[in-house]
UniProtKB/TrEMBL annotation:
Phylogenetic lineage: Eukaryota, Sar, Alveolata, Ciliophora, Intramacronucleata
Any one GO MF annotation of this record: cysteine-type peptidase activity
Highest rank taxon of the organism: Eukaryota
GO biological process entries: proteolysis
Start and end residues of each Peptidase C1A papain C-terminal domain: 121-327
InterPro entries linked: Peptidase_C1A (IPR013128), Peptidase_C1A_C (IPR000668), Peptidase_C1A_papain-like (IPR039417), Prot_inhib_I29 (IPR013201)
Name this polypeptide is given: Uncharacterized protein
Keywords annotated in UniProt: Signal, Zymogen
UniProt signal peptide: 1-19
A Pfam family reported for this protein in Swiss-Prot or TrEMBL: Peptidase_C1
Amino acid sequence: MKNIIAATLTTLLIGFGLYEVNLDSASDFERWALKYGKNYYGDEKIYRQTIYYQNKQMIDEHNKRTDATYLMAQNQFMTITNEEFIRLYLNTKSSEQLNQQDQVRRNNIYKSPESINKENKRDSVDWRGLVKVKNQGSCPSSYAISATSLTEAEYAALKGISVTLSAQQIMDCHYMKDGCDPNFDRNTVWEALGYMMQHGLYNEYQYPYTGKDQRCQIKTDGPWKIKNRSWSASMKAYSLQSHLYFNHPYSVEVDGTKWQFYGSGIFSDCSSATSTTNYYALVVGYDKSENWFVQASFGTTWGESGYIRLAPGNTCGILNTVNHVDLND
């Protein structure tokens, strides 16, 4: 108890600038813990410190490779294993649940108004910065954040309206108190967009994000709605590129299993033909080499200021399931 009180007091003094940490003598682990506001005690501290140094060694060894197309970096995930990263931050559903989701969406496959062919593709499209990068915290809420970010992007690009919508409202009010359950089969972008069509959302200021399971905090519908939701399966790369040029960012389902320590560069360390999608993100463009720009929800200290660049093609399953929205006129 005395150690906990002392650590808490030290943290408060640091916050008020009344306690100076000697960073020159601090260990790498202590520097990291101070930067990310992490406190561990007793056996837990020993365990987490061990994982930290194991991850640090793996990162250092990866970054020495001459054949690596991307660099790893230390971030907020340094004291968890990859198994914990998958369990805590990704959406893990069974193959039966995924098949059921596909059956529900089959009648809503996206039909583009444009004639999609390779001639429609532009050299590059970059919607990075159109909507702010979110941080889901320790809740696998990427489905709600991807859905709200998709809608925010449509409002920004089509109507010039900048708004941050409440992902927490979807988590709390769609299916009560299951918003952070990684196995709940309703926690998908498709279901989130359906809720938005029917009930509308409040903005994040009115309904703040907590990243926790809680009861619905509202009794009336929100003012921000969408007109329609649609999706496309097994899209061709040039089709998605053309869609990004004409129709702005899209929500995608990807395999984020190995994204834990992505730092910078072109990522391709997952199967291009993967059927395992466990993370929802926002594809926001591509460069002249056809690498994808993808906006994640791990905050701006992760990756390239919150973004990851994926190699061309169906890297991490980015083309497997693509979601789109239409706004009300």
